[in-house]
Design brief:
Blueprint: E1 3-8, E2 15-20, E3 23-29, H1 30-36, H2 46-71, H3 76-86, H4 90-102, H5 108-122, H6 127-136, H7 141-150, H8 155-167, H9 175-184, H10 189-198
Antiparallel strand pairs: 1-2, 2-3
């Protein structure tokens, strides 16, 4: 079996299709293709072809994982869930996770700190709600505790600001509706009543 062509894919510019005896056999990213040193005219036996097809699958999985973490920062738990949904076996999942961690793209402490900072900036979110969200993303309790310990935002101030903001909207002039909304944001009943009394 001979490699008869190596062509750049039109849809995925960073990947190259490898043809054996005139037929498509597998594809590799540019980096992986360079590291394998495959060339047109090179002979492959059945075992080598099987190994390259496996490498192709692993390489594509790595490209997808990179794209997944490029969209937004992810926790290790989110990545494990993603790999499970994709049907990757345990050794491949661990290999991908290790590569991404070495590149600094997976770090639960940084993820947790960034999550708390961003949620505080974008919307009035209670500490309790932040803790729930991070747990849902499989971040360890110790990591969550450290992130929340460095967060200097006062829940009471956030609550008062949120009440003042929501009161300007017609739908939240009703105390019951506003209380339900604030409870969904993770604020305690007594704190909500106190904040409503102060506004």
């Amino acid at each position: 079996m001979n490699i008869t062509a190596v062509k750049q894919q039109e849809r995925l510019k960073g990947r190259y299709s490898v043809y054996i005896d005139g037929k498509y056999a597998f594809s590799l990213s540019a980096d992986t293709l360079l590291s394998t040193k495959l060339t047109v005219g090179q002979e492959l036996d059945a075992a080598a072809l099987k190994a390259y097809k496996r490498l192709s699958q692993d390489d594509k999985a790595y490209s997808l994982a990179l794209a997944y973490v490029a969209r937004r920062m992810r926790s290790e738990g989110e990545l494990r869930d993603y790999f499970r949904r994709k049907g990757y076996d345990a050794p491949l999942s661990e290999q991908l996770l290790q590569k991404l961690t070495e590149l600094g793209l997976v770090d639960d402490a940084k993820f947790s700190d960034a999550w708390v900072r961003n949620r505080r900036l974008l919307r009035g979110t209670s500490t309790r709600r932040l803790r729930q969200e991070l747990r849902a993303k499989h971040v360890a309790d110790d990591t969550i505790r450290q992130s929340l310990a460095t967060d200097e935002v006062d829940d009471q101030a956030v609550l008062r600001e949120l009440v003042a903001k929501k009161r300007r909207q017609t739908r939240y002039r009703d105390d019951q509706k506003l209380m339900q909304y604030l409870a969904r944001q993770g604020f305690g009943y007594d704190d909500i009543r106190q904040a409503l009394g102060q506004i």
